[in-house]
Amino acid sequence: MKHCTLALLLFAVCGNALALTAASADHTAEAQAQPALVPWLPGHSYADGARPDARLDKPVRLWRAGISLDQVFAELAEQTDVVLKFYPPDDENQRIRVNMYLNRDDPPSLRDVLAQVMWTTDCGIASEATGNPTAPYRYYLLSTSIAATAGSRLADDWQAAVDAMRADWESRLPP
Hints:
Layout: H1 2-33, E1 38-39, E2 63-68, H2 69-80, E3 84-87, E4 97-101, H3 110-121, E5 125-132, E6 135-142, H4 150-172
Parallel strand pairs: 3-6
Antiparallel strand pairs: 1-5, 2-4, 5-6
């Protein structure tokens, strides 16, 4: 009887292992399609920071009411040559309408505006290296719901699969 139970356990474990391998392959393909994002903090982008980007020092001017964040990013990108995007690409934050009145007498830097956007939207910003020395990074406003890293989502998926495997295994044990 012990050999039969052991065979059932091995079958259950191997069957679930194959399912986990397939799920892992799906996550790998998804990860390859995603940009390689690194969390951005304003202090990291100064000349002596971990990811310097002098373009963020450029002053920006904007004096508009009821403008979508997507339009804000487009206008800021036009003024600074910094690519500003949303992640995921269909994020609802891009449709949020804001009143953007930046100081005309002492225009803030793009870095300062991005820091304020992070604070007011309660979203993180991440950067992606471009390999271009004159435009080293592009920046993404991260959706609040996915501000957790993809790694933590993968860990959650993995834990759910392990829990399901454990529950299946325990249900097959003799009483």
